[in-house]
Amino acid sequence: MKRPLSRLICLILCILLTCGCLFTTSFAANDDITLTAVNDSFLPLSSSTMPVRRGGAQYVPYSVFSGTLGISGSYNSSDQVLTLSNGETSLRFDLSRGTVYDQNMNSYTTPAYWINSTIYVPVKLVCGKFNLTYSNIPAAAPILRICNSSASLSDSSFVSSSTNTIRSMLDAYNGQSSGSSGSSRPSGSDSDSIPTPIDPTTGQPTDTPVMKPSAVYLAYVGAPGKNTEAILDALDAAGMKAAFFVPADGTTLDEDLLRQIVGRGHTVGFTLLSSALTMPEKLRVANDTLFHATGTVSHLVCISDGSEHLSATQQQELLDSGYRLWDASLDSRDHSYGPAAAAQTVTTALSQTTAPVVIRMGQYTATARTTELVCAYLSTYSIPVQTITFTRSPVNNIT
């Protein structure tokens, strides 16, 4: 009796394990899928509606809010500004600057992003400003539900009445995904493709830039640190040179990294705030450190908050001391964006100007990959890249 019983137990365990594996596989297949519902209806399940997360915040295409939720959305492609409004309340997303303001000029910290050629906006901010509710509902696949006063069902009733609909949507989506070479899931900040230029008229990607800057200068600001070598490697791989503006405010500088920067053919300059006192003296001390490390000195200065904030006396004092003032004209926002979003910020701006552009990047985790993408774009579209040096006419905001 013991042997048949043991066989029966083994058989039951095998069945349970098999069912468990099937359940796990089914769950995993839907783990990366989020359904979107507005009031009592689902939106089509595709990359044009599926939410993503960026910096811990949940985002959806701005079109999710237009229509039945009573919000109008308009995008000014020339200014790269998206405005959401219901007549009384508005949110103005400036994609080129990464800023957000409401109708009372209150600012917010969750900007809009271009993701897969679609503008995504933060769910929490938009719902809060326009008196909407949102909830993340656990189901066969997570559901983001956004509602106004027209919703008639509670979350639990909505899910229980939609079981067949949810299953049909998931089956159709998984079948489509398994039959293609890749998922239609939005790529977000991890995309490895070269960002494409954006047509300022349509706001859509184009095969070639609408315009090209006459020259591009790559400028990295901040003290050299743990990400600097990776940035240098990215520049070496692209065959491009850059300027590294390091603090002249008494910050301790890594002399080994300074030697690497100079040794690999890049330029070193200094950064100061416009409020700094005794600028020539601070620059002299910083040059002592640079000379001790590399045998070189620099007369290039980037005022962190813009040279236009210098007084006439400060400007003259620096010019009389032999310094050249450079300003960044385009911030990549690599301090807050992922590599793809930072690179898209840069390439979109580059495709809409013929003026020389100084691209500002930091030395952050995202910067090396951002550099690769930006350099690939510059090479692909044959945009001239020049190095900031003392002999070049500076680009600055001094009038």
From TrEMBL:
Compositionally biased intervals (Low complexity): 177-193
Secretion signal, residue range per the UniProt entry: 1-28
Keyword Signal tagged: yes
Alphabetical UniProt keywords: Signal
Annotated GO MF terms: hydrolase activity, acting on carbon-nitrogen (but not peptide) bonds
Domain Copper amine oxidase-like N-terminal per the UniProt entry, residue ranges: 48-133
Official protein name in the record: NodB homology domain-containing protein
Domain NodB homology: from-to ranges: 213-269
Organism per entry: Butyricicoccus pullicaecorum 1.2
Keyword NAD: no
Pfam families reported for this sequence: Cu_amine_oxidN1, Polysacc_deac_1
InterPro entries reported in the protein's UniProt record: Cu_amine_oxidase-like_N, Glyco_hydro/deAcase_b/a-brl, Mao_N_sf, NODB_dom
Region annotated Disordered, chain positions: 172-209
GO BP field: carbohydrate metabolic process
